[in-house]
Amino acid sequence: MVVAMVTTASARKLRSLRRILVAALAYRHYGRLRRVRERYLQLMLDCLTGSIYQDPPLKALGSESFDATLREYGWDWPSMAHSMIGRRRMGNLRLLAERVLFDRVPGDFIETGVWRGGACILLRAVLEAYEVRDRRVWAADSFEGLPPPDAAYPADAGDRFHTYAELAVPLETVKHNFDKYGLLDDQVVFLKGWFKDTLPGARTGPLAILRMDGDMYESTLDALRHLYDRVSPGGYVIVDDYRVVEGCRKAVDEFRAGRGIADEIIEIDGVGVFWQKSGR
Asked: Does the residue 46 lie in any domain?
């Protein structure tokens, strides 16, 4: 009887020690995994924004030398970097992408207006870092620059974005940029054409993130009209140029007012904003 009691007590201690050992090994393993993941995604952000190699900006906006403050807030157009949204907005995009993964908000990620592809590349990198295989990144763009203003949209009157050749990046160039990071695969879907033509029939299914960077009233409104209802409750809507392009802000404000959307608009960096879609 005594021997049996000792054996039982020893077995309990062994099980307890085993649980502690397994927990310690798991913590050590996942602690290292977290550090590796953090370093990978931070390196991606630094590379995509050009912060790591400090490329000079294009001359279109007047500046000719790298300025860390301009690059932080996305106030220049990089000559080589794959994104012009700056470190603050890129960091926000990573944060929101991770949130929807942690909170299990269903849906893919989409950006409307991708330029060289940087923001979409980061989204694909987040999926890669967390070994997510059941979500896709949609990159929607004309890959020919912005359209001339349409008289049907007075808010775009006088807009000159279409005159900047620097904003026209061919599809093959964007694909090549994905490939440079080893992230060009079947989890990336490209939608080539004007938003009014491509977005209505895009078979995205639910969306967890809708990021809009179309600058103009028409482009922003097209994205909201055709994609907002696909955003899952708990998902995020990001507007890149809300505070600096009047047509963009007007399209967002009118759409929200017309739909009775009261979700709080949250500032990112004085340029971009986002809100979380309620109803979850």
From this structure: no
